[in-house]
């Protein structure tokens, strides 16, 4: 890119004699400054957007060769809209959207081009909304969502939805904006089969409980969402988050029925996490007797796992419950007592 072109875009001086004469000179030589790029592939519109030169952007896009720049990606396939969202510049995003609408109406009589630009992905399949969410740019997120309410359902190459990213970063207001706009199941998606609800529970975020409530209150009670490696309820039980457990089952009572890929219930998870208070709380629940006797894929009940983990407190809690069947054997034909004694024997032999 010619140094004077870069300087003009950076300073925003579109009408400077130097820049105008440069346009003329380049045109006379059969070149086009609109095709010039920096070493990382940024065109003149990228540069102007990086420096939030809104007037320059408007003037540039009124030139006959200007509109195609809206769609041009740099070396990362970031469009100028991606750059504006990264910068958190509401004004730049607004003018870019307005200009693509204007030109699409003039050329095609419709504004579908605007939606296409909003959803245009970069190399990592990130949209402008992904960038705005990562930066916590609330006003930009609001603007993008208002223009395309279903934009929240677009996931990137890592299977991260904008809602997942907002939850992971604790952006409660942005979460609410997306939740109110998008009803697509994909809007909750995260990597490796996780959802926004999982990360809300698992991450030590400020306002974590509020995030969980927000997600549950927006009709997330779909049993399929919970059927992953570890359900949200399993994670809450393992970590000992009683309030979160209560909130989940309040909105989704059938969550108690969820068994993970290892055949384990939330009670198994609480035992493995060593969360005695949660174990007590689950045992106090009505109509959950079946959870106490549930065996995982190895045939282990919660009592078996407590014995395996040598957790004396939980062993005592479970053993005192009259509903416990102490004689249930696992796939190795061992009772919980057999496991406990085997551990003692191993310690003695060692």
Short description:
By secondary structure, the chain is mostly helical. It has a domain at 220-350: Ankyrin repeat-containing domain (Serine Threonine Protein Phosphatase 5, Tetratricopeptide repeat). The protein contains 22 helices and no strands.
Structural class: mainly alpha
Mean pLDDT across all residues, rounded?
Answer: 84
| Helix content bin | 55-70%
- CATH homologous group name of the domain at 220-350: Ankyrin repeat-containing domain
Order of helices and strands: HHHHHHHHHHHHHHHHHHHHHH
Rg, rounded, reads 29 Å
Number of helices in the DSSP assignment: 22
| CATH level 1 class label of the domain at 220-350 | Mainly Alpha
Query: Low-confidence stretches at least 5 residues in length (pLDDT < 50)?
Result: 223-227, 345-350
The description of the largest β-sheet is: none
Quick one: overall form?
Answer: elongated
The assigned CATH architecture of the domain at 220-350 is Alpha Horseshoe
End-to-end gap: 73 Å
Say what the CATH topology of the domain at 220-350 is.
Answer: Serine Threonine Protein Phosphatase 5, Tetratricopeptide repeat
Total strand count, please?
A: 0
What fraction of residues sit in β-strands? under 5%
Please, could you describe this protein's structure?
The structure is a single chain. The chain has helices at residues 3-11, 17-28, 44-50, 54-62, 80-87, 90-108, 112-119, 128-134, 138-147, 162-168, 172-181, 196-202, 208-217, 223-226, 232-239, 242-251, 266-272, 276-284, 289-293, 302-308, 312-319, 336-349. The chain is elongated. The model is unreliable at 223-227 and 345-350 (pLDDT under 50). The chain has a domain at 220-350: Ankyrin repeat-containing domain (Serine Threonine Protein Phosphatase 5, Tetratricopeptide repeat, Alpha Horseshoe), CATH 1.25.40.20. With 350 residues, the protein is mostly helical. The protein has 22 helices and no strands.
